[in-house]
Write a structure and sequence with these properties.
Two copies of one chain form a homodimer. Chain A is an all-alpha fold. Chain A is built from five helices and two strands. A two-stranded antiparallel sheet of chain A has the order 1-2. In chain A, β1 (31-32) and β2 form a beta hairpin. The radius of gyration of chain A is 24 Å and the shape is elongated. At the A-B interface, α3 and α5 of A face α3 and α5 of B. Chain A binds a DNA duplex through α2.
Amino acid sequence: MYTIKEVAEKMGVSEHTLRFWAKSGFFPFVKRNENNIRMFSEDDLNWVKIVKCLRSVGTENKAIKKYIDLCIVGDSTISERYKIIQATKQKALQQMEELKKQLDLLDFKEKFYQNLIENNLEDTWNPMNQNKVKNKAV
Amino acid sequence: MYTIKEVAEKMGVSEHTLRFWAKSGFFPFVKRNENNIRMFSEDDLNWVKIVKCLRSVGTENKAIKKYIDLCIVGDSTISERYKIIQATKQKALQQMEELKKQLDLLDFKEKFYQNLIENNLEDTWNPMNQNKVKNKAV
DNA sequence: GGTTGACTGAGAGTTACTCTCAAGTTTTAA
DNA sequence: TTAAAACTTGAGAGTAACTCTCAGTCAACC
């Protein structure tokens, strides 16, 4: 059993955020000890893990709560939960594509600046230098 | 030259956000026409592109403004800008790793539910079924 | 000449934290 | 054994980055 601080360290989520998530109803199974302190079980850690996963791919808290409520209802909601996970995965794949594109742009920019530095060139792409003839740039 | 609406469509950023970014000083070179309407040039579109890129990898607006201010200063800040782009790229690469991990978890979950559905099994991972013996699950 | 449609800025509202605080326990240290 | 340090708690204020609503201006069409 783990206190909120231990969970925060273990899972890489701040204590504040964990309390906020708890208040949002994301951990309906976390028990309190005799001093009203939350004690997270191993199973609860898995809930933290899946909540963290859903959040990190941009799922809204409202939708996460919905998913958790479906879990609470029980086995009759398995196919609905399956669809949610499927859709979330598709969204994550799209994000991967988008991130790749942005990485390409950052890579281009990096090499562009590198070239300017190594060859002591002017930044002809910068609008401040609009009057100057451009070298190969975005 | 493009109006804010056209830029919004072209770049996949809402008009609201573009106005917000403009007010934040992200487009210091966008001119207005005789009716006070913002007209974006091709160069301005590239600024939108780089701002969108920095935002999408989690760069704070304050830091974006700083980068833009460095651009305005001119060529003397090239090496500083180079460092910013390098650091941003590293952050993006980390995000890629994180996203891969989350995708793996979603993939596992997807297959897990698929197995439950196909074989008509109980969701023994769900804390609601804690009393039952677990099948292979997270 | 009146309505439609695009644009404007100001400002209120929203999401998801993030931080501060006072109050209660508990462990450590003198 | 008592005082201080180290936890935890919930309430509530603050923040970032939008997101939306609205009143007002202006040009263009019927």
